[in-house]
Design goal:
alpha/beta, binds ligand Z5A
Length: 214
């Protein structure tokens, strides 16, 4: 589907460096006079931020079953797509999202073991034809990821308190996602320096769309 804007998503395990790279990329766009729309999932709309609170921090979210969890992520996304992402893309803007439907495929599908067909069907219902033009998966080993999160010293949320087995499945899920979607998904070794990664991301984007930084 052709539309005037460009949609970029970042994925990966917690602490892999998505927010850092998104902030640098946004600055690179601003330098050429383009103000990107920055969003995060879950959240990004008033309804979505309430859902985020329920999913991550509220005591009422502690005993969510995997199916309810999946539907809440999808509800937040459905609202975000229609309220924010599509209008921005239609207006020709660049949209950069910290996580999108691939997180559901990996966290709820692979790590929580919800059947892939169900996850795919609900993802498709939530986003319609609003698919990312490119997705960067920042791949990082668990030890480095934990070290980075410890350095941030913030309280862990409900999902971050999951088992080591869960996070091993998340990493495998992302590697598999990249293998299955080579045209859209770019796998990057996130153990490298912030600057190296940022330069590589900009250069990949330029290769895909020469007009993005002009
Ligand atoms: N989730 C889900 O299950 N299903 C879904 O459909 C969706 C989400 C959409 C959202 O978490 C949770 O929801 C997430 C998946 C689940 N849970 N888990 N676990 P979130 O939004 O609260 O946070 P996050 O996305 O997991 O990660 P984060 O904490 O925002 O981290 P990050 O953005 O990837 O990393 P960062 O903040 O850029 O960097 C972390 C630290 O590392 C920071 O101190 C940086 O300065 C440092 N850093 C960054 N890059 C580097 C490099 N290259 N070298 C060294 N140090 C670095």
């Amino acid at each position: 589907m052709s539309r005037p804007g460009f949609f970029i998503t970042f994925e990966g395990s917690e602490g892999c460096g998505k927010s850092t790279q998104i902030s640098l990329l946004a600055d690179q766009f601003r330098q050429v006079g383009r103000e990107p729309l920055l969003i995060r999932e879950p959240g990004g709309t008033p309804a979505g931020e309430s859902i985020r609170h329920l999913l991550q921090h509220a005591p009422e979210g502690e005993n969510l079953v995997p199916e309810a969890e999946l539907l809440l992520f999808a509800a937040s996304r459905a609202q975000l797509v229609r309220e924010k992402i599509l209008p921005a893309l239609e207006a020709g803007r660049i949209v950069i999202s910290d996580r999108f439907f691939d997180s559901t495929t990996v966290y709820q599908g692979v790590a929580r073991r919800i059947p892939a067909d169900d996850t795919a069907r609900i993802n498709a219902f939530a986003v319609g034809d609003c698919l990312p033009d490119v997705t960067f998966v920042l791949d990082l080993d668990r030890e480095t990821s934990l070290a980075r999160m410890r350095a941030c010293k913030r309280e862990l949320d409900r999902i971050e308190r999951e088992s080591e087995e869960f996070f091993a499945a998340v990493r495998v899920g992302y590697l598999d996602l990249a293998k299955k979607n080579p045209a859209r998904v770019v796998l990057l070794d996130a153990s490298r320096s912030v600057e190296t990664l940022s330069t590589e991301i900009q250069s990949i984007l330029l290769q895909r769309n020469k007009t993005l930084f002009s």
